[in-house]
C-alpha cells in the first residue's frame, strides 16, 4: 500500500484501542541481546519498525519468534557484532543495539545513521556517553566501531548536553553490565526510558531514578530473561484524540496512560476540546469551534515533538493565530507545505510556524514526508471537503498499527 484515500467530513464515533508503543518496544527489543535466557514481550505492535529491529537482532544471532502480538526473543550465546547500513538506513533506532553489544560482547560496529526528513540527528551524545564508560570509538567507512577496554565497560558519571532519548537508552543498556556505578545526569525522562528501565530491572539490573533527570545504574554480572508487556503508545493515543477533535466526533481512546498524554490533553483542553478520563480510557468530544493556542515542543514532560504535526492540523481549525515552536528537531515542518495545499494558512519563520484559522480544508493530493507528517495529513484529510490522496504511506506504516482499519471502525471513509 503506497497511497491512502480519505473522503473527509465524517465525525468519528466509537472506540479505538491504542497499540503497544513503538518507541518503547524498539529499545526493549535491542535490550533482549543482554540476558542469557529468552524474553517474552507482550502487546507488540505489527509495525514496519518492529519488523526491522527484529531483522537486526536475527542478523546478530538472536532467534525471534512471533505469535500474534507476542514476541519471544532467544538471545545469541555469542552475538555477532555488526549492524550494517542496510538496516540502519531503514531505521535509525537500529543504532540502539550499540549499547547492548558493547555490554555483552565488548565490541560493536554499527553503520552511522544518516540524517532524515526531520533533522540531521547526530549520535555524538550516544558516543560520548559510551566513551565515558571506557569504550574506544573509531569512525571508518561510514561505520562506528566501539570496543570496550579489557575487562569490559566501567561505570562513570555522564552529563548529557541535551536529554537525548536514544543516548539515555543506549547508555543505560551499556551500563547495566558494566563494573561499578554509572550516573547519567540530564537524562531523558520519557515514559519509554522508564519502560526500558523497568524491563531491565525485572531482568536483574539495578537502575534507580528512571523518569527523572538523574539515573543511577549499578552494574551486575548477568541478566536473565523475563516476560514484559510494553506500555501503550502515547503518540498513537494523542493522534486518535486529535482525530476525534478535528472531526467534531465522540471517541473513546482505550489503553492509554493518561499521565503520559498530559501535555497533549492540556493543549486540547486549552483549545476548547472536551476530553475526560473514563474507566476504560480517554473520551474526546469534538466541538464546532476551537480557540488558537501556542505550542512549544520540549523533551518530556513537555509537549512531544512527535505530536507537533498532528496538533498543527488541528490548529488550522481554531479561531485566531497560533504559534508552534519546534525546539527538538531543526527541520520538522515538512508537513506545512502539504497542509497549505489543502488550504491551510501557515507561515514558517525559522523554528516557528504561524497558523491562521479557522480554515475549511479541502482534499488534495499530498505527500507524507515522514511518519508524523503523514499522520497530520491523514487527520487533515478526515475533516477536509472532498478526497485527500496521501502518498508515501510507508512512512505512516512505521508507527501506526492498522491505521486504516482503526479509522474505518470509527466511521471514517478511508481506503487504499
Ligand atoms: C525510536 C524513538 O524513540 N524515537 C524518538 C526519540 O528519537 P531520538 O532518540 O533519536 O531523539 P533524541 O532525543 O535523541 O533527539 C533529540 C534531539 O537531540 C539531538 N541529538 C540526539 C542525539 C545525539 O547524540 N546528538 C544530538 O544532537 C537530535 O538531533 C535531536 O535534535 O526521541 C525523539 C524526541 O522525543 C522522538 O521524536 C522520536 O520519536
Ligand atoms: C521521529 C520518530 O521516530 P524515529 O525516531 O524512529 O524516526 C517518531 O516516532 O515520530
Automatic annotation (TrEMBL):
- EC? 2.5.1.7
Q: Which residues form the active site?
A: 116
The entry's UDP-N-acetyl-alpha-D-glucosamine-binding residues are 92, 121-125, 306, 328
Where is the major localization of this protein? Answer: cytoplasm
Under catalytic activity, the entry for this protein gives: phosphoenolpyruvate + UDP-N-acetyl-alpha-D-glucosamine = UDP-N-acetyl-3-O-(1-carboxyvinyl)-alpha-D-glucosamine + phosphate
| Organism superkingdom | Bacteria
Keywords attached to this Swiss-Prot or TrEMBL record, sorted alphabetically, are: Cell cycle, Cell division, Cell shape, Cell wall biogenesis/degradation, Cytoplasm, Peptidoglycan synthesis, Pyruvate, Transferase
| Entry's localization field | Cytoplasm
**Which pathway does the record list?**
Cell wall biogenesis; peptidoglycan biosynthesis
Coiled coil where?
Answer: none
Return the protein name. Answer: UDP-N-acetylglucosamine 1-carboxyvinyltransferase
Q: Quick one: which gene encodes this?
A: murA
